[in-house]
Write a structure and sequence with these properties.
Length: 1241
């Protein structure tokens, strides 16, 4: 405890301070007493002189004894000299301490970081509204002793140390300093072999420079700290262990690794301050306790050690510069004009701020004829003068004045000349020669104006100034701010006098992942551009963690940025994702994946190859760990070049693989680790059974050993050593393929909570300054807690608050804060929903599915550390709230996936895994693809689609020539499939001659051609009923159909022209019962034998162009011909070349629709034959059933506009033909004959 010391207070009314000889007993103190000022306002303080510098660890307060007087909140200030106070801030930003709630109880605060000071000042902020400010105070600590040195800008100390015979494994340097100058050298050390270390102040920041002079590339420069020129003590420490360096400035620490040549400094000379002729700026200020490897350098200087030379004093002088802080919009300082007789005016000041705008000073011209404003705008100093009857006068000077450094500005008017100067001779100035006198006989206002609405003396059309000012002068006379503080001159409001309360909110920066930090007086901002991260602090990754995650968002193969640890420290990198197979492969290339011939060197007996991968080491390890399976191809082609086994039995070749530098392996692809074998040995098919590898047979014929390395702990392959390459006749080539991994273990890791009382628990969530939580859930319950972690007072929780609302809540000491998102539809629909929550020092955000994120700002200058100490509960809660019933999947905390399945296996009431993905992801299976459930995932079955690919979205396209044809013959099973797809309740008898009635057809295909006329599509029955789609002159779409062989065909014509334009066009034809729907678009061609004469003439021309995605119900003739020709009933004649000329119809746009009925037609029933038919030139599809109604859809691409006019066609009314329940929306067109009708689409 600190004994009674001298106590000062402002406006003392009753002073009786208690310093207890032992720790507070938290009991009432006998007798009356305590400090209570005459006025209870925010300008009172209690100051204690401790008699010497003291290490202060805690403070405690009570109210005034036996009264209603106590303070409820207060500020603590500390100082070494009784001026230039420094405010103590908790967690770096919180200034206020919680006070008392009554006069008797004791409230103690242990300081998070100790303070060394002589003077303590307590400033009440709030007090009992029914009483006055009342206080009893106690401080805790112990005396502090130190050795100090004073440098005046010319002085220095030089230490010449004895060289050590051997380098040390560790070194350390520590010191404290204080200064008012923002630049100067603190320490420079020169070691053996040209090593050097420099600690230097540059613009108020500490620069650490470590270099090897003999090698310019060996240079390490680190900058830490900010605002270090505040005349307060700052601690610096450098610790050097092996090749690890640690630099500490106050509470900021930086770790980095240096090269082997810089492992130790072993200085032979160390300079403190500066030396004459030295290239660095001299230091002006004080150093305290400079220590090198435990050796106190001040002690050596005091002892006049021969190794020490210099000219310093062993004390620390305290120059007095009284600053004042303008804390907010209500801050202002009003000063009277000192020299009323002066013809002109001179005002000067120094300021520092982070704001780009703010009023510096203003005053009225005499007789209220105008006004002068000196202000900051866009970080430049602007002078603006308004005088009645005159044009405004404006000057500006300086730039980047919001950098937090001290800047001076001087306004001088006299002798018909006006000058504004920024930063003196080194800065900038602007001049003018006004025709009127610029002076004032009234007051000068600094920083802002009083809040009184009726005040006409001060007007401020600009923002108020927030920052610090010092060295104010009026008429070349300094302003005594201490007298201002004592209300002896001028007036002020909301100022903190005799201190500069500026805070650098970007040091240390809360912007993560390389985001750049900028700030204003009250907050900071992070620019995340180009980082790959987003959010208020650049915390959350904008990329997925794996190719699997990209795939299940509907993406296709290609290069993607992969961020394997999401918000973790590993940077995202561009990798290739192969999504063409059921497994989604992440492909990591290296510098040589080609088959490479070995070129022997006469001087070397082995051939060594090193592989450099596209991914960083950390990312490689994370990818391998994340994946379910990894593999890497390795191959050796040889002739008279053995691979593994020599006659002596030792391995001739090997490879190095695995994490870090890797380990040596002597097995080859396809064989288990440690076996010293190749794949042929396991398959018993080596060319010589006496050897375990084909190449070891030493044959004169070319052979090879190849296979896949699949043991993840041995991957990736880092180098390859080939040993048998120098013998006469030896030839060889090798290939090491890219590393390929599939299966994201995180994406499908899930657990099912079948009771509201069941839960999983994990270690405490660590996210003091920032934390992100993401997961998927599905449930049928309307509420439940997903996640909860508690501390003593702090907590964090995510819950389903109702069937359509998710709630994210937490408390870091500022009171509970909640963020909620409401969905437009119920969330308890047993489908997967995604939650992403983030909390950082600036804000909290919550996002549900694809809804916009909802954010809630954190309180300004509030608590920022989330302090938790209990276990993390998943699916339940420690606070006995209602638990969650349902599935949780892919739960990640700060980019780390929690293994729910492993924990669920040993936890009652929780099941590992959670099936049922197709209800959520089935829509990803496109183009009639069918979603198939898997235990952990799903897949798309494309057997009933004309498309292929993981999501049935890759078109199957082919280029046709005039002589090309494809014949598809329907078998009985095909007819059965068609019947099932048409939802017919009847089934086929075993005879292939059975009758069949198709109640629905779906036909679609795409085309690209320059040919016209061309038959695009022809479908016929055994009895010659048909419909046909063709391009007629002039490149128009025409649809003909004959559903009764005894009648002529009906014709539909489109007004769309120019379809043979080499652009991609799509047609879709569908029939359901009796209704025909026509969606106008741009089409393709097909022809056949046995056509009507005019169709036959067009068909004889063949088809030249591209066909893609041909589909009839569940049959894909083109896909069968290209991908499954041996197992499908297809016959191909002429050249059929697979191409990429098609395009997904889902990407097409701009179609219009019309609907009409067929004229008195009904579905036909025909005998089925096992015949096949040829559609000459393109595709033949023989279905033996006449299509009774159809729809056609086409769309233009590449900015071609496709339009259809909606028309109605008069047809037979439903009552005239009871078999046709039609609803017509088409107007009729008069046909040319009774049997042949024309329709214009």
């Amino acid at each position: 405890n600190i004994l009674n010391r001298k106590v000062n207070s402002q406006f003392l009314w009753l002073l009786r301070v208690f310093f207890f000889p032992s720790p507070l007993s938290f009991s009432l103190c006998p007798g009356a007493g305590g400090w209570s000022p005459l006025s209870s306002d925010r300008y009172q303080w209690l100051e204690v002189d401790l008699g010497g510098r003291t290490r202060i660890t805690a403070v405690a307060t009570q109210g005034r004894y036996g009264s209603s007087d106590w303070q409820t909140a207060y500020l603590l200030m500390f100082s070494d000299a009784g001026h230039n106070w420094k405010q103590y801030r908790q967690e770096g930003s919180i200034g206020a301490f919680a006070g008392n709630s009554n006069a008797d109880s004791v409230v103690q605060h242990k300081l998070q970081h100790q303070v060394i000071a002589r003077y303590v000042r307590l400033i009440p902020l709030n007090w009992n509204p029914n009483g006055r400010i009342g206080l009893r105070l106690e401080t805790y600590g112990c005396p502090y002793n130190s050795d100090v040195l004073s440098f005046n800008g010319q002085s220095s100390l030089i230490y010449r140390l004895t060289p050590r015979p051997r380098q040390m494994s560790s070194e350390s340097i520590s010191l404290k300093f204080k200064t008012l100058k923002n630049s100067g050298i603190l320490l420079h050390a020169e070691g053996q072999n040209g090593h050097s270390l420099t600690l230097e102040l540059e613009k108020g920041k500490l620069q650490f420079l470590y270099l090897l002079l003999l090698s310019p590339d060996s240079r390490y420069l680190v900058t830490l700290g900010s605002l270090l020129d505040d005349q307060h003590w700052h601690h610096v420490a450098v610790e050097h262990h092996s090749n690890h360096l640690k630099l500490t400035v106050d509470k900021s620490t930086e770790h980095f690794i240096v090269s082997a040549c810089l492992c130790t400094l072993s200085p032979v000379q160390m300079i403190l301050g500066a030396q004459q002729g030295f290239s660095y700026t001299s230091f002006y200020g004080c150093l305290e306790n400079p220590v090198y490897n435990g050796l106190n350098l001040v002690d050596l200087a005091k002892q006049k050690d021969q190794r020490v030379t210099g000219n310093v004093t062993f004390s620390c002088s305290e120059p007095v510069f009284v600053a004042t802080t303008f804390t907010g919009p209500q801050s202002f300082l009003r000063l009277p004009r000192i020299d009323q007789s002066s013809l002109g005016i001179s005002v000067g000041l120094q300021f520092r701020t982070w704001n780009k705008a703010g009023l510096l000073l203003t005053f009225e011209l005499p007789n209220r004829e105008g006004r002068v404003w000196l202000y900051l705008s866009k970080a430049r100093a602007h002078l603006q003068i308004h005088k009645s009857g005159r044009a405004p006068l404006e000057l500006n000077a300086g730039s980047a004045l919001n950098d937090g450094q001290w800047h001076s500005v001087d306004l001088i008017s006299g002798g018909g000349r006006l000058t504004i100067t920024v930063d003196g001779d080194e800065g900038a100035s602007a001049h003018a020669s006004p025709s009127f006198l610029i002076t004032t006989g009234g007051h000068i206002f600094f920083g802002g104006c009083p809040a009184e609405e009726n005040s006409q003396e001060c007007l401020n059309p600009f923002k108020a100034f927030q920052g610090c000012m010092r060295l104010l002068t009026v008429d070349n006379r300094p302003v005594d701010l201490i007298k201002v503080q004592q209300r002896l001159i001028g007036n002020y409001s909301h100022l903190q006098i005799d201190m500069c309360g500026i805070i650098d909110r970007c040091s240390p920066s809360h912007c993560e992942h390389g985001g750049s930090c900028s700030q204003s007086w009250s907050t900071f901002h992070c620019n995340c551009s180009g980082t790959g991260y987003s959010g208020a602090t650049c915390h959350s990754s904008i990329y997925e963690q794996s190719c699997e995650a990209y795939k299940h968002k509907g993406n296709i193969s290609g290069y993607y940025y992969i961020d394997v640890d999401s918000s973790g420290p590993i940077k995202p990198q561009l990798l290739y994702c192969n999504m063409t197979e059921d497994n989604t492969w992440m492909v990591i290339h290296h510098n040589n994946t080609d088959l490479t011939r070995v070129q022997p060197s006469p001087e070397v007996n082995t051939h060594v190859v090193h592989f450099e991968y596209a991914s960083d080491e950390e990312q490689l390890a994370a990818i391998i760990s994340l994946s379910e399976h990894c593999e890497q191809e390795i191959a050796y082609h040889c002739r008279k070049s053995r691979l593994l086994t020599s006659p002596e039995g030792s391995p001739l070749s090997w490879w190095v693989g695995g994490p870090g530098v890797g380990q040596m392996h002597t097995h080859w692809g396809g064989a288990p680790p440690g076996s010293q074998q190749c794949a042929c040995s396991l398959q018993n098919n080596c060319v010589d059974s006496r050897y375990h590898c084909n190449c070891d047979a030493d044959s004169n014929e070319w052979t090879n050993d190849s296979g896949l390395l699949t043991h993840k702990e041995t991957l990736p392959v880092r180098s390859l050593v080939l040993g048998d390459i120098q013998r006469p006749g030896s030839e060889s080539t090798y290939k090491v393929g890219p590393l390929r991994c599939h299966g994201d273990k995180n994406v499908w890791n899930a657990a099912f909570f079948d009771k509201e009382t069941s839960y999983l628990h994990f270690p405490t969530l660590h996210g003091e300054l920032s934390a992100d939580i993401s997961f998927l859930f599905k449930t049928t319950s309307s509420s439940g807690v997903f996640l909860e972690n508690l501390g003593i007072k702090d907590f964090i929780r995510i819950e389903l608050n109702s069937s359509n609302e998710v709630l994210f809540s937490f408390d870091v000491g500022n009171g509970p804060l909640e963020v909620s998102v409401k969905a437009g539809s119920p969330l308890n629909d047993n489908r997967w929903h995604r939650i992403q929550a983030e909390r950082n020092v600036k804000e909290a955000s919550l996002r549900l599915d694809e809804l916009p994120a909802v954010t809630q700002e954190a309180p300004a200058d509030g608590h920022i550390h989330l302090q938790l100490n209990s276990q993390l509960f998943i699916g339940g809660t420690a606070s006995r709230q209602k638990g969650f019933r349902g599935c949780i999947r892919s739960l990640q905390l700060n980019g780390v996936t929690l293994d729910l399945e492993e924990r669920a296996k040993i936890t009652p009431g929780v099941q590992a895994g959670c099936p049922g993905h197709c209800s959520s992801y089935g829509s990803l299976c496109q183009n009639q693809g069918r979603c198939v459930e898997r235990p952990t995932s799903f897949s798309c079955d494309c057997s009933s689609s004309a498309y292929t690919g993981p999501f049935c979205n890759k078109e199957v396209s082919a280029s046709f020539k005039s002589e090309t044809s494809v014949t598809y013959a329907f078998k009985e099973q095909m007819v059965n499939e068609l019947n099932r797809s048409s939802s017919s309740s009847s089934s086929f008898p075993s005879s292939i001659y059975s009758d069949i009635t198709l109640k629905a057809e779906n036909v679609s295909l795409s085309f690209r051609t320059s040919q016209s006329p061309a038959l695009l599509l022809y479908v016929s029955s055994y009895h010659r009923e048909y419909f046909a789609v063709l391009l007629s002159k002039p490149d128009k779409l025409e649809v003909r159909y004959r559903l009764d062989s005894s009648k002529d065909a009906e014709i539909l014509r489109s007004k769309v022209k120019n379809l043979a334009d080499r652009q991609l066009h799509v047609i879709t034809i569908s029939r359901l019962a009796d209704v025909v729907s026509i969606l106008c678009a741009c089409l393709f061609s097909i022809d056949s034998e046995g056509l009507d004469p005019d169709l036959a003439q067009i068909a004889s021309l063949g088809f030249t162009g591209c066909l893609s995605a041909v589909f009839f119900n569940s049959i894909s003739p083109l896909k069968a011909a290209l991908l499954h020709p041996k197992t499908s009933p297809v016959t191909v004649t002429g050249p059929l070349i697979q191409s990429i000329c098609g395009f997904t119809s889902a990407n097409l746009s701009h179609a219009t629709e019309t609907t009409h009925h067929l004229s008195g037609k009904r579905p036909l029933v025909n005998a089925i034959r096992s015949d096949s038919a040829l559609i000459g030139g393109v595709i033949a599809v023989v279905i033996f059933v006449t299509v009774s109604s159809l729809a056609i859809m086409a769309r233009f691409l590449y900015r071609r506009k496709c339009t259809c006019q909606r028309q109605e066609v008069k047809t037979v009314k439903p009552e005239d033909n009871p078999e046709l329940p039609f609803r017509s929306r088409i107007t009729s067109q008069n046909g040319p004959t009774e049997n042949q009708k024309e329709y214009f689409i």
